[in-house]
Amino acid sequence: MTSTNMATVSSDIAFRLEMYRSQFALRQFEKRAYDLFLENYVKGTSHLSIGQEAIASGVAAAMRPTDWTFATYRGHAHTLARGVPMTPVFAELMGRTNGLMAGKGGSMHLTSVEHGVMGSYAIIGAHLPIACGAAWSAQYRGTDQVAVAFFGDGSTNIGAFHEALNLAAVWKLPVIFFCENNLWMEYTRTSEVTAVANPAADRASAYGLASIIIDGNDADEVYEVTAAAIERARAGDGPSMIEAKTYRHGGHSRADPGKYRPDEELAEWLAKDPIARYRTRLLEAGVSEDELRAIEAGVDAEVDRATEEAKLGGVPGEDLLLKDVWADGGGAWRN
After folding, report:
1. Helical spans, DSSP H, in 150-245
2. Fewest beta carbons less than 10 Å away: which of 8, 26, 27, 309?
3. What pLDDT was estimated at residue 330?
């Protein structure tokens, strides 16, 4: 879902139906990815964003196709939201040759330059300065492209976060820093190791930026606030930092049952499920149950089809080991 198809206000029913379809598709993809992991189709681990779909859908809707997304290892949803089809993403998770990166990247390194997805980064916060570099290139070349860098609350305590914010503010770069604050740094509650209550927003003033805190489980609010920030960046008014309060329904990764979280906290956030909330909002706006079920059935069919297509891919051979390692595509060692 890209902004060329979504250039309208969020009160428009067609827009909101597409926003619902996007969120539901991200949820169903992640649920199927988990099933495939249990069936041993997906090797290693991966990090699901079930519960955080409103962020990926809302931000993508505010972006143009020429804008750039920089995601974390929890990047399946951000990749799909920018328009990458399900089949190559499923295949990449399975390590198949029909995968997005021919099976070499896996879950934590999804990239599609064609769709403006400039990588999912497994090193915490390492992509924030890279997003600044992309934004600087747009500024230098005189284009109106904007970079959006997603990061978790844990990233706000590393040096790269502060260096990137400072540089972006000094150079007035067209970059949006988007904190997905799901309250937990892997297995540690963020508030126990962070000096401020809002790890991103409370530090914004140090770099001359406004403190922006939003409900990350409300796709309409995510879209509206992000769209305004992107337009400011396009106009040359510099970066913004947005902190979205959200919650992952599962553990940090698929190897983590998440039992360290209090039951009452989990129940509270499950009641704020972004997809259930958005579905109720559409029904209250006059959308019929049949229309929503038709959207859901279409998504389920898409997930089933993409799953089977992905399974048809081959296993990468030795000929791919050194492919794309060097800028010229070769495998020769360089000084």
Report:
1. 159-171, 219-234
2. 8
3. 60
Residue 117, classed as helix, strand or coil, is strand
Percent of the chain with pLDDT over 90: 84
Q: Decide if 37 contacts 46 (C-beta within 8 A).
A: yes
Secondary structure letter of residue 51 according to DSSP:
T
Contact criterion met (CB below 8 Å) for 177 and 153? no
Q: Which of 48-62, 79-93, 115-129, 255-269 has the lowest mean pLDDT?
A: 255-269
pLDDT at 236 over 70: yes
Phi, psi (rounded to 5 degrees) for 189: -65, 130
CATH number for the domain including 214? 3.40.50.970
In a domain, 274, yes or no: yes
The answer to whether 20 touches 298, Cβ cutoff 8 Å, is no
CA 23 to each of CA 16, 30, 126, 215: distance values in angstroms, whole numbers, following the listed order? 11, 11, 27, 15
Amino acid (1-letter code) at residue 269: W
Indicate whether this model's pTM tops 0.70.
Answer: yes
Question: Strand 184-185 relative to strand 68-72: parallel, antiparallel, unpaired?
Answer: unpaired
Q: How far apart are the first and last CA of the chain?
A: 43
Q: What is the mean pLDDT of residues 103-118?
A: 95
Count of domains forming the chain: 1
Q: Which of 235, 236, 265, 231 is nearest to 249 (CA)?
A: 265
| Model confidence at 2: pLDDT above 50 | no
In a domain, 332, yes or no: no
The region, left, alpha or beta by phi > 0 then psi within -120 to 50, assigned to residue 266 is: alpha
What are the φ and ψ backbone dihedral angles of 119, each rounded to 5 degrees? 115, 150
Q: Degrees (nearest 5) of the Cα angle 11, 17, 18?
A: 105
Residue 117 domain boundaries: 13-320
| Spatial contact of 220 and 190, defined as CB atoms under 8 Å apart | no
Task: Please give the residue that has the higher pLDDT: either 261 or 323.
Answer: 261
* φ, ψ dihedrals at 140, nearest 5°: -65, -40
Q: Give domain status of residue 334, yes or no.
A: no
Examine the pLDDT at 101 and tell me if it is beyond 50. Answer: yes
Assign 4 a pLDDT band (cuts: 50, 70, 90): very low
